[in-house]
Write a structure and sequence with these properties.
Length: 475
């Protein structure tokens, strides 16, 4: 009888947790931890984070784990809820393709919260995070339909990140709690009942999506605690008649993608690190706009802009077009093909555009809105063929005298085929962190993560700082 994929994932997790990570996997995991901490700290003053944090601090509870940067300590599940919300709040967290997942934003906050409770050695923290990310990606890959060239989750309006991330977080934290293969298997079975998330906010607004990864981290820890306490889950929770894939993907799943080559072939190595704090579908347009701006295209002379993207992308970044051309908020602007192209053409901060380019004030800028209104989005055949293994696109700009300029992007910045350099990764981190921690504080975090495997027990990675924009000095 073929072994259940739930059991296979649990056996992989337990075996790998007792083994040394491949150096390439280890380095990639540390990059994910650094990047997740950076984008989390950058989001600390986001309104959605403030709502979640105020609720968590108001509830109180056993002071087990830290909320990033704050002096307060709260129950591990509560810390993970806030920290996971921070990690996804700016849409600046890493992406896996073609599953279209943001795996680190759920797994890293959950694992760090439990590691603080348990006093886990650094090597165990790193390994648990690597395993949790891998399980998350494998679940997402299993639901990728090559005929549709899209994730079944997304076809159904489901946020695969939070659904799969709940299970990945549960696996990582169960390992840190000392769970064996049997316990990890039960944690998968329990957490499969807890994952949720809808992506309608990508289209029409609302800030709930920012909380999805926080809730996944929170739920993952809850499932781990229940499993280690003796609660059990169904052994066929993934493939069963009333199981995970039946519920979320109509029974479709690709078993080889889920469990093939576990421990030998790592999906974690396929993560994309975002250079821009926007929905990943917008990145090809931003890359192309930066390139054409560098080649001398003057925004004042533009008459028409044509943005070609994969057909499935249109519903996220181009529909409804009136709302995308004039976003209602800075957050909505991050999901707008027209507005992100306009911003990149006018020149942004950071690595091309920055979080400051997507404030609520920025979306009311007449110059950006006028340029955004010139953008016509369409389904580009070549880009559609390459999607979602890549998020390609083409930008064509016509100026007033009829001259046209065009740039096609086949591999966006930050992916395995076009990676950010070490200097660019550090620049992204420092741009995100230094306004809150200063240069010395940012260096402290970098060195703490780089030396993680040498630490014998959990050390607080992030110094405390004030939540107020007006008080940014270290406490």
């Amino acid at each position: 009888m073929t072994e259940s994929p739930t059991r296979q994932l649990a056996e992989f997790a337990s075996h790998q947790f007792r083994s040394e990570l491949d150096p390439e996997v280890s380095a990639a995991t540390r990059r994910s931890i650094v990047d997740t901490l950076g984008v989390s700290i950058a989001a600390v003053n986001e309104p959605a984070v403030g709502v979640v944090a105020s609720i968590v601090f108001g509830r109180g509870g056993v002071p087990e784990a830290s909320v990033l940067g704050f002096s307060e300590r709260v129950p591990a599940v509560s810390a993970a809820l806030v920290n996971g919300t921070m990690a996804h709040a700016l849409d600046f967290d890493d992406t896996h393709l073609p599953s279209v997942l943001h795996p680190s934003a759920s797994v890293v906050p959950a694992a760090l919260a439990v590691a603080e409770v348990e006093g886990s050695p650094g090597a165990e923290i790193e390994t648990a995070i690597a395993i949790g990310i891998e399980v998350t990606c494998r679940l997402g890959m299993a639901a990728y339909d090559p005929k549709l060239r899209n994730s079944i989750f997304f076809e159904r309006g489901l946020h695969a990140t939070s659904i799969c991330g709940t299970i990945g977080a549960a696996v990582a934290t169960t390992l840190l709690y000392g769970g064996d293969t049997e316990t990890v298997s039960h944690a998968i079975g329990i957490s499969a009942s807890m994952g949720s998330g809808l992506i309608e906010a990508n289209r029409t607004g609302g800030t709930i999506k920012r909380v999805h990864c926080g809730w996944a981290a929170h739920s993952g820890i809850t499932a781990a605690e229940l499993a280690t306490g003796g609660l059990t889950g169904p052994p066929t929770v993934l493939e069963g008649r009333f199981g995970f894939f039946e519920a979320f993907t109509g029974g479709f799943y690709d078993r080889p993608s889920l469990v093939g080559g576990l421990g030998e072939e790592w999906e974690l190595l396929r993560l994309f690190t975002k250079p821009y704090p926007t929905n990943h579908f917008t990145h090809a347009g931003i890359d192309a706009a930066i390139k054409l701006r560098q080649e001398g295209v003057n925004p004042d002379s533009i008459s028409v802009i044509r943005l070609g993207v994969p057909a499935p992308v249109l519903r996220v970044i181009a529909e409804p077009i009136d709302a995308k051309a004039a976003p209602e908020s800075g957050y909505s602007a991050r999901f707008s093909g027209p507005f992100t192209v306009a911003t990149a053409l006018l020149g942004g901060g950071g690595l091309g555009v920055s979080a400051a380019d997507f404030s609520d004030d920025a979306v009311r800028d007449p110059e950006r809105l006028a340029l955004s209104a010139l953008v016509h989005c369409y389904a580009d055949e070549q880009s559609t063929r390459d999607f979602p293994n890549q998020f390609p696109g083409v930008l064509n700009i016509e100026i007033n005298d009829g001259t046209s300029f065009e740039h096609r992007v086949t591999h966006t910045r930050g992916g395995p085929e076009n990676p950010l350099s070490g200097d660019e990764l550090e620049l992204k981190f420092r741009i995100n962190v230094e306004p809150r921690l200063g240069s010395a504080g940012a260096s402290h975090v970098l060195e703490a993560v780089r030396g993680l495997t040498k630490s014998s027990s959990y050390q607080r990675l992030v110094p405390t700082f004030s939540h107020s924009e007006k008080e940014k000095d270290l406490q």
